Structure formats: C-alpha cells, structure tokens
Amino acid sequence: MLNFELYNPTNYVFGKGQTEKLSKLVPANAKVLLAYGGGSIFKNGVHEAVVAALKDFKIIEFGGIEPNPRFETLLKAVEIVKNENITFILAVGGGSVIDGVKFISGATHYEGNPIDILKKKVLFTDLSKVIPFGTVLTLPATGSEMNSGAVVTIEATQEKLAIGGSALFPKFSICDPTVVSSLPKRQIQNGIIDAYTHVMEQYLTYPTDALLQDRIAEGILQTLVEIGPSVVENPSDYKLASNFMWSATMALNGLIQKGVPSDWATHMIGHELTALYEIDHARTLAIIAPSLYRVMFETKKDKLAQYGERIFHVTGNSIDEKANQAIEKTIEFFHKMGMKTKLSENTNDYQKTADFIVNRFDERGWKALGEKQNITLEKVKEIVEMSY
Ligand code: NZQ
Ligand code: ZN
Fold first, then answer.
1. Which end of the chain is more exposed for a tag (fewer CB within 10 A), N or C?
2. pLDDT at 349 > cutoff 90
3. Domain tally, the chain
C-alpha cells in the first residue's frame, strides 16, 4: 500500500428532514449568499425549506449557475460577495452549483487575475483566504459535497478546468435522499454513471496490495449496479435513493483513493467533450471509458479481470478472456443506464475531435496521463478515435 494522509473535515449530515439543522450549522450572525442553479429548487420545495431554516439569517440570493458552471457567471457572484461583505456561502444544488461555490469561495480573496486560478490551477490551502461554505445537495453524482475539487468552464475559450485544495472542503453538507424524487431520469442516469466511473478511475489501474480499498471500491460498484436501473424507475423509493446518494459520496470523498494509484484520464478527456459539445459530464465518461480500457488493455487487464469476476461474475480460461468480458459487461451496464457509448451518437460534428484534444493537451504540457503515465498523446488520439 502507498503512504497516505486522510483529511476530510466536511460534516456530512445525511437523511430525511436534515435541512432543518441549517440554522445550527451556518455560523451565528453569518451574512449568507444562497447560491443556486437554474431554478429546480423552487419547484421541489428545497428553496422553501432552506429559507425557512435560515429565517433568522441575512440572506442574499444568487441564481443562474449553469450546469458546467461558467467562470464568467461566477465572477458576478464574487463581486456580490465582496460588495455585500458576505461571510458564508450556501450552495444549494448539484455538482455544478457546489463547484461554482468552491470557485467563488477561493476567488474572492485571490489577489491576481481570477482566470489564473483555472489556467494555473491554483491550490487553495489557506483557510483564512477563502470564504467558508456549506452545501445542500440536490443531485447525487459528483461527490463534490464531500471533496475539495471543482471543475469550472471558461465560456470564452471553451475550456473546462479543475481546481481544488484542502481549504475548499465544504464545512458541512446536508444530504437528504428525498431530493432524488424530483430529478429527471436523465440526471439520475448521469449520477449513477458518474459515481461508477469515479470508482473505476481509482480502482481500475493495476493490482496493488490495497485489499481493503479494492473491496470498498467493489462494494460501491456492486451497489450501483444493483440499484441503478431501479432508482431511475422509482426515484421516490427511499431505500434506493439513500443508497444512491451515499454511494455517490463514497465514490469521491477521497477514501478509496488513499494508498492506491489512480487514473483520471477518462475524466480529463471527457471534460474536453463537454467543453466542445456540451455533452453531459457522465455521458462523456461512458463514451471514453470503454475505449480507454481497450487501448490500455495490457496495463489494466489484471484489474479488469478481477473486476469482471467480482462485479459481473464473469468466468473464463484466461486473464485476457475475463478482462474482455468485463469491458463488454461494463458497456452493457452503461447502455442499461441510458448511456450512448459512441461519440457519433452524441454529436454529428466529431471527426476532428481527437486531433483537437491532442493539440490542446500538448499546448498545456500534458504529455502523458494515467496511473502509469503511459497514456501518451498518441494513445489519447487512439482512444478518442475508437470512441467515434
Ligand atoms: O440548475 P438547476 O435548475 O438546479 O437544475 C439542475 C441541472 O439542470 C438539475 N437538478 C439538480 N438537482 C435537481 C435537479 N432537477 C430536479 N430536481 C433536483 N433535485 O440537474 C441538472 C444538472 O445539474 P448539475 O449540478 O450540473 O449536475 P451534476 O451534479 O452531475 O454536476 C455536474 C458538474 O460537476 C462536475 C462536472 O464536471 C459538471 O460540471 N464534477 C465535479 C466533480 C467534483 N467537484 O468532485 C467531480 C466530477 O467528476 C465532475 O467533474
Ligand atoms: Zn465525474
């Protein structure tokens, strides 16, 4: 097992009716910016519950944070935080709103040009230089409610870039699974596949002696396979919704990444597809992952075979046979969850995508990705072209 430090200060507040606790979780006398997205929280009662719980606080609202939050929009919120002397931000929404709030939190006291936060991937580690924030999660998917990462899109250049740092953990996250009942099917499908792929990025590498991490990762994968199709059909079923929400958090709250190598190339390539074609985040992962497993087969086949045996109970005479079946089973699951796994099924304009992405990575100095840093730009090209 590799050495590691495990630090996660987020107070994770899970279950029905937990929104009531907001009045105790938000610091007394705080002046609060309530940040939200396109307005779903007005339709499902979440806004009402939040405002009721915070009736004794001064609140200013900021709406309109888009899916794949835009740098340009977030800067407007930064101005409000500065001008209104906001002391606490509450993100009420899915990964986009939470990520947007992480950016606002860090950008408010940032002294340079805010675009450098993204372009230079500034690491926020000083708690005295960020605005504290909490979240009310409305969409299980990203794990952003219990991690310190964020992904923000620069509209002007169509770039989607990640930031983070230990100062960007939410102070608390209220995770009430009943929010799942108002989600469109498409978003539930996305949530399951995003969480699934988060586990795969941290698990599907090469065998190490991290036995417990493997079993925890497999537990999350198995749970998602078991509940995924039914939660889409029965989003009001509390058993399904609660297991979905907790699995999605566990997939990316840092725990399963400790002591093991991780990949993340599917995400890095996928972000480009969202930036270029506005394909939903999870759907880009379902397009790229199968091709990546095929192109990187020699690196990943031992773990693929283990995954195939333990999650899908595949049998076979060799590692290669089991590993290949594991890829097929993964694609089957993605299809069952409503994913279209070819780029050409998601956009008509795909022919030059591979060259574009490779050039971009090259310009950014990203010469190699993956757990062994052996996903070279040639391999990236092959992966993207295979996904057409
Ligand atoms: O904006 P509103 O009106 O709220 O509607 C949203 C949005 O249209 C809607 N929605 C959310 N909760 C709802 C609801 N509709 C009805 N009922 C509810 N309870 O769902 C739509 C999508 O929301 P969004 O927040 O964009 O989805 P998601 O949570 O999947 O977040 C995706 C973003 O997170 C980033 C992605 O790249 C993408 O930008 N990620 C963040 C990560 C992190 N911070 O760790 C890791 C991930 O890999 C991912 O990259
Ligand atoms: Zn993701």
1. N
2. no
3. 2
**Same domain membership, residue 151 and residue 208:** no
Residues 6+ away with beta carbon under 8 Å from 114 = 71, 75, 78, 107
**pTM recorded for the entire structure:** 0.98
What integer is the mean pLDDT of 356-371?
96
Atom number, ligand 1, closest to the C-alpha of residue 198:
48
* Residue 223, amino acid: T
Structural domain that includes position 130: 11-179
Query: Across-strand partners of 91?
Result: 35, 135
Same-domain check for residues 42 and 151 = yes
Instruction: Give the pLDDT confidence score for residue 374 in this predicted structure.
Output: 98
Give the number of other CB atoms < 10 A from CB of residue 115: 16
* Cα(94) to centroid(ligand 1), Å: 4
Query: 201: which 2 tokens?
Result: 């990025």
Q: What is the mean pLDDT of the chain?
A: 97
Mean pLDDT, range 152-156, rounded to an integer: 96
Q: Ligand 1, from 61, 99, 183, 189: best to mutate by most atoms within 8 Å of Cβ?
A: 99
Closest residue (by CA) to atom 18 of ligand 1? 183
Residue 378 maps to which CATH number?
A: 1.20.1090.10
